[in-house]
Amino acid sequence: MFIKFWGVRGSVPTPLTPRQLEGKVAAVIQRIKPDDILSEEARGLFMAELPASLLNSIGGNSTCVEIRLSDGTRIVLDGGTGLREMGIDMMKKKEIGLHLHIFFTHFHWDHIQGLPFFDPAYLPENSITYYSPMAKMETYLRDQMKAPYFPVTMDDMNAKKTFTTLHGSTLDLGRGKISWRAMKHPGGCFAYKIEDRGKSLVFSSDTELRDKDFEKNPENRRFFEGVDYLIMDSQYTLDEAIEKYEWGHSSYSLAVDFAAAWGVKNLGLFHHEPKYGDNKIYSILNSANWYANHLESRPLKIFLVTEGLELEL
Ligand SMILES: [Zn+2]
Ligand SMILES: [Zn+2]
Description:
This protein is α/β, with parallel strands linked by helices. The protein is built from 10 helices and 14 strands.
């Protein structure tokens, strides 16, 4: 399966500010020595050695993940502002006449705000099935596109629409299998597991981990044990997680504990805090790696989920 992250920020879209960009440029200039600009090769080497926090940005769009199964089935997890970027890309590539399957974890703004700006939803050649275990999904989605909040309604979206309330705990989709599980978050939130050709991904955005998520019961084992990739809400530092108890998010250290407890192979830190700049978020990755190295568990690969990141499972 192919995975692409179009939006990775939590709570609210977070564009890089002009001041932050200026800070990056100034920091790069400070590092340049005369030898670094003597040749194209030297310039390339200089660029390659820059820290990721200077050369890149975590990205500013809110939650949206694209998944393509091995049989070509197109899945989207959440419709945050990243969905708009995905739609622009699809239109540019003339990807028309598609059937998309959009699953929602929950309906907080940062997970639905891209939908009104998703160009493929306006094309009659496309069809979209929207999924959620929450029975009021259709009302929630339609309500954000009502006056005075938005000038066009969901009826103006000409792609064929189907709203499917998820019952039970699994759904076969193409060659893949989708499972879901309720996690702790104000108003409720669902984690999704996607399995395809023996590979597995768990997407658990907006999650405040509880003791019961660590319990080795059959339900937890089926969902979390040994997954290849766990994309996990790790919005907070440890101090913040204590201060913001019941706010519905987890600390990076708890995410590491959780991934280690379930023998996860790769942990992606996700739903980044909007008040943190790139430096702070990269320092969280360092702290998470430091912490993981001090746990007596199987090797765990930890990475930051950044906008535009692609994975092939
Ligand atoms: Zn969120
Ligand atoms: Zn939320």
